[in-house]
Automatic annotation (TrEMBL):
This is PrsW family intramembrane metalloprotease. Keywords: Hydrolase, Membrane, Metalloprotease, Protease, Transmembrane, Transmembrane helix. Coiled coil: none annotated. One of its GO terms (biological process) is proteolysis. It comes from the Bacteria. It comes from Actinomadura litoris. The lineage of its organism: Bacteria, Bacillati, Actinomycetota, Actinomycetes, Streptosporangiales.
Amino acid sequence: MARVDPKAVLEGRIPGRPPVALIAGLTVSGLCAVVALAIDALYGGAGFWVGVLLAIIPIPLLVALALMLDRLEPEPPRALVFSFMWGAGVAVLGALILNTLGLLYVTVPIFGEQKGHFVSATFGAPLIEESLKGAALFGMLWFRRNEIDGFADGLIYAAMVGLGFAMMENITYYMRAYDDGGAQQLQAVFVLRGLVAPLSHPLFTSMTGLGVAYAATHRRGQILAPVAGLLGAMLLHGLWNGATTFGLGGLGIVYVLDFCVLVALIVIVAVERRHTVRRIETYLPMYAGTGLVTPQDVRMLRSIPSRRAARRWARGVGGAPAGRAMTDYQLAATELALLHKRADRGVAEPHWFEARRDALLGLMALARQAFLRTPPRHRAGPPWAPQGPSGFLVPGRPGPYGG
């Protein structure tokens, strides 16, 4: 029997084929990040390492908050790393070069020193930076559109790009603050950028993420939705940059605006999660005849706490291999429900739909069998179906699987 690669099945790629494009993208992004850091180190003083440290400190927490948006169907780690590195590398270095050239050869010569800096920050920087950050999302729409199953996916990838960009940009701001004004000015800038508004860039780019996600999951709006999202990102970014010239009042207005945008995005994710749960309840029962899923299993799959409890039970029964098998089963079942969503919206080509469906069902069966073959350690049955029926209960078998 051929070996099945669960990650390849869940990510919808050919098993055994190295992700050449992804590796190339990570390499280019990493080199760009190194060059950007080298420029900061070259022109910065003692504040460079202080800036690096302060910029990195909040990143783990912010990444964790972003990943909480999509716990039902987590995105592939490699794609998330690529998105972050694109923002921290290609987008940052490209923005540094283009913003500098625009300032020197366009805005300042045309509008003068003071007004040129204002025009560059309010109009030029949003246009350049959001285009560069959005390029990663447009690339996913073109090359990996099936990886984007809904708005939450688009928002997560946008957040990762934005966090990578913000981290590198903050290094420059912290470094300059320390070198120009010492610890007191550095403290003020860190409070503003690191604590008060750490999600500004992810919020800007989230508009592009929404547009790309809509295009990936709908037949209409293939061009209009991503373009509208990109324009929305530029608008939010421009308002933020422009508001700095109007003092605390201007900043207060854009803070309120960004907070409203953040609340709206959370509502969108919450509503979409409920819709995903309903799809799990609607589509998975039709596969009851395969023996892979029962109404009790569906109840387990529809709840994040129940999924977590199922993984704990699996690890208690068969250790880490059983825990991984349960994770594969849960993710494959969720992908199956989302696959039907694509079919309902007419964005799933029939042959691809059938191949993808069969691959996911095969992974569910393999995960279940790998779990059932694991020697049991406890006598209790699945907590979500103690008396059955369940795909993880074998009639007549003693021990935790039934009997």
